[in-house]
Design a protein that fits this description.
7-stranded parallel β-sheet
Length: 338
Amino acid sequence: MAPPTVVVTAPEFLRSENVFTATADFSCVSAPFEEDALVGAIAETGARHAIVGGTVYRGPLYAALPRGSVLARYGVGHDGIDKALATRAGLLCTNTPDVLHQSVAELTMLLIGAAARHLLPVAGDLTQGRWEPRQGLELEGRTLALIGCGTIGRAVARIASAGYGMRVVGYSRRGGAGAASNHYFEEVTNDFGAAVRDADFVSLHIPAYPENVRFIGRDRLALLGTRTWLINTARGSVVDEAALYDALAEGRLGGAALDVFEREPYEPVDPAHDLRRLPNVVLIPHVGSNTAQASRRMAERALRNIRLGEAGDFAQLDLLNPEVLSTRLFVRGLKARP
């Protein structure tokens, strides 16, 4: 019997082609990431499962896959997958936790270092023939506030504290639960104002849950100091970009370094708030997890979830919609498998 076909959206297939092509128990094929074209590829190949990136899927994808299939997110954030639609269609939704924290944490620290030493402007000056050294800051002794103390936040805390000698304060809605035992944090609090009060850098590591949409808005930006830099390697939706633009343009915030945006590829939320026009910003195109090592681990984890789904070992899945297991459509899909 031929191995089951798995469609993999093209950007993710290219990042981990060596893993996908070497897999013996599945036939992994590259497919367009746009929803209608992806649905067409599923129909054409007879794919049983799909691995997708961060594109938002809200339409026919869920009806295109057989009931009982795995819709695997290549990455951690899963706001692009509609879990309610997937559950109604009898699909298992998974992601790849705990495999990209080092890559994202390292990029976070690179952005902090670039901000502290004015790295992009002085490099730009030199390429334009201008020799204009600028005085920067040492990171040792500086205060870093981490908004979110999950796996990535804790990895950043380790590098910042043990590697650079920074003072690290954490913010978590649960306060000190979990992260407080991590000795790289000087303090963990559920008081946002207290966490950022003396911060030189504020770095975001919260998920794109509905309650976090524009979490950093005008009110919370007002709590940051005029020397503070905001770093975002989490999700673009957690920042109100218009409010951020105003704070930067008016000198109420020291700067911002962003790897993620409300609209990707980046488009300003409106023409009057184009972050690319500001001198005190660093903008990069969502590369936090885009390393060879993290890409391999995400591909392997996504394929592992599909193997577990095929085997019916649901307890070991990185399952995002556990309620699907009790639905009639899911059970019917299992019975209909060849």
